[in-house]
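Data deposition worksheet. Section B asks for the primary sequence of the deposited chain exactly as it was used as input, without tags or linkers unless they were present during the calculation. Section C holds the resulting structure in token form. Section D is free text for depositor observations; keep each observation to a single sentence. Incomplete worksheets are returned to the depositor.
Section A, Depositor: J.P.
Section B:
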Amino acid sequence: VQLQAFGGGLVQAGGSLRLSCTSSGRAFSNNAMGWFRQPPGKEREFVAALTWNGAYKTYADSVKGRFAISREYAKNAVYLQMNDLRPDDTAVYYCAAARGARSGGAQSDYRYWGQGTLVTVSS
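Section C:
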């Protein structure tokens, strides 16, 4: 089972990026999915999550109104649309699949993790 995140890069403040996460070896249709990030020199933190059916979504306060998480079952994919990016959004971003159908921001809820993709926001 493998999760792969991609779509990171260098962007100016105020710009947008869309991160994608795909799975191989297994579909996570019945699992909650989440995005986390680790800023330079800091601990990994929660960004966004959605339930197995996409009906409920939760966001870290720091990204509410700017980021949007979504999923596409046909492609076994999860996305993170990031708008109005700020320099403090600079981080390695990780996608993860939870053990169950619902999850909030607790990293212990997540069993499968992808490799990260680096997002750098310049001022």
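Section D:
The two ends are 37 Å apart (CA to CA).
The chain has a mean pLDDT of 94.
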